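for the recovery benchmark. tokens below, seq after
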């Protein structure tokens, strides 16, 4: 396939987010200090008043409606073009966030700076893209949502607050093994210091409130659904390595096909070795695989984990890396365990060739936790504690664990959908699929990392680790996500389903 012309332009705000660390961690801190010192001075009204100045200084990030999640009915003939426009919207938000991060001083002096200089121009640019999306949909006979233009406006989001449900506090909507449950964990907000200036080595997170001592969290893992007589109790393990050969890129062929740097962060890849923005169904089978089973050419990829220890990684000055706030030493997992399991209530059907699934949401900081599916824990604690909105501080001798349990119900027809979600679904609390959906092998993944133990001193986290993400998402733990494309040969999809349905333990 020829390369799409929608290549990512160099951002207008070309200053690297990493370079803004001095503003966010130094200058930003001074802004706060100046505000509190001057609020009681006789002439502090010259700054616009106490309330106005507080509202300005506290703007931590930019929150924009996630247009892609609203587009559930895009005709196939328009999907590639619409995906390109959605990638442009992401690029606009990234550029606007860079502008926000590098103008803290101006924001402190002008109460309307963020609105007039960042948010209003962003709204105008977004409206132009939304108009193009409507045109692309109607051009092929589709019907665009009537309220699409209402998604143009973005807002400034204060530190420590989510625009759609909150990032700090308890996990309200954690998904565990495909089920929704209430998390009884003790995940408290708070955190002075960094909470006020966004924190992180690059000035966009994480902060002290994003971490919790796992030994102080109450058990919160629910019981699994009860198995019925028709349960599929087997499993199939595929061994694909830990990406020791460092196959990485900042693309995402599922959500931004044909777009360079469509993810705005770096992914680790195991399995298929040739996945990038320009891969497609026609050449997936030509990619080779890191899996021991050479019939498994599936693509398994996830955002890299970094320790923010000041390391200048190879991507320090690149888009998707340091230029977009993803800094520090990339950590290769000690283990990457990939297992397919069955349904507690039914047999499974084979996964269709080229099925695409995204689990979790890379934009929970602004979207809220509806689609969050992050699971953070420590070795020795996994059966008791799983965290969504905080990173674990593990005790000595324990390792950090990220795990994923994918959607395990399929609509029986589509290998993808316009918003990349509606063609698959999670089973309910009793283990049943929604009406009209079929149970498929549930993909589960477990990544284990050896990272320095974070410590919190005076509200500041040291030895912080975080997953890569869109810069405006502030490296929150709930933004963790995982991506998968089912690509098999030699009847492997049927073999996986057979093993699971017959109660076998296969590898």
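predicted aa per position
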């Amino acid at each position: 396939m020829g390369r799409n012309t929608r290549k990512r332009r160099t951002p207008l705000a070309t200053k690297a987010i990493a370079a803004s660390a001095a503003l966010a961690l130094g200058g930003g801190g001074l802004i706060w200090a100046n505000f509190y010192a001057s609020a009681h001075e006789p002439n502090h009204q010259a700054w616009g008043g106490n309330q106005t100045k507080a509202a300005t200084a506290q703007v931590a990030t930019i929150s924009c409606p996630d247009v892609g999640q609203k587009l559930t009915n895009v005709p196939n003939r328009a999907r590639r073009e619409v995906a390109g426009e959605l990638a442009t919207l992401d690029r606009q938000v990234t550029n606007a966030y860079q502008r926000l991060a590098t103008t803290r001083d101006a924001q402190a002096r002008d109460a309307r700076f963020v609105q007039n200089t960042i948010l209003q121009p962003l709204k105008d640019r977004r409206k132009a893209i939304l108009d193009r999306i409507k045109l692309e949909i109607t051009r092929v006979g589709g019907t665009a949502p009537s309220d699409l233009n209402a998604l143009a406006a973005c807002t400034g989001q204060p530190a420590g607050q989510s625009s759609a449900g909150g990032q700090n506090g308890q996990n309200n909507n954690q998904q565990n093994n495909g089920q929704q449950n209430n998390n009884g964990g003790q995940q408290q907000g708070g955190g002075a210091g960094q909470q006020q200036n966004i924190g992180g080595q690059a000035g966009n997170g994480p902060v002290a409130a994003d971490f919790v001592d796992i030994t102080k969290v109450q058990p919160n893992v629910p019981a699994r659904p009860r198995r019925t007589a028709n349960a599929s109790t087997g499993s199939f393990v595929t061994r694909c390595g830990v990406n020791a050969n460092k196959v990485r890129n900042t693309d995402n062929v599922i959500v931004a096909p044909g777009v360079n740097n469509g993810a705005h962060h770096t992914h680790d890849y195991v399995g298929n070795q040739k996945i990038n923005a320009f891969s497609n169904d026609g050449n997936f089978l030509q990619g080779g695989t890191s899996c021991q089973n050479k019939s498994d050419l599936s693509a398994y990829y996830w955002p890299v984990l970094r320790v923010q220890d000041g390391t200048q990684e190879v991507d320090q000055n690149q888009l998707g890396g340091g230029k977009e706030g993803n800094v520090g030493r990339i950590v290769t997992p000690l283990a990457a365990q990939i297992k397919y399991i069955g349904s507690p209530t039914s047999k499974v059907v084979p996964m269709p060739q080229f099925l695409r699934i995204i689990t979790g949401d890379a934009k929970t900081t602004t979207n809220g936790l509806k689609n969050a599916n992050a699971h953070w824990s420590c070795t020795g604690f996994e059966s008791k504690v799983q965290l969504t909105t905080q990173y674990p501080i593990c005790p000595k001798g324990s390792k950090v664990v990220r795990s994923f349990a994918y959607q395990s119900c399929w609509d029986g027809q589509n290998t993808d959908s316009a918003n990349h979600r509606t063609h698959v679904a999670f089973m309910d609390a009793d283990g049943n699929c929604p009406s009209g959906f079929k149970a498929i092998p549930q993909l589960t993944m477990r990544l284990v990392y050896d990272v320095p133990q974070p410590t919190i001193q005076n509200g500041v986290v040291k030895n912080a680790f975080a997953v890569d993400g869109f810069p405006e998402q502030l490296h929150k733990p709930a933004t963790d996500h995982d991506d998968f494309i089912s690509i098999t040969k030699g009847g492997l999809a049927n073999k996986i389903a057979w093993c699971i349905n017959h109660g076998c333990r296969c590898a």
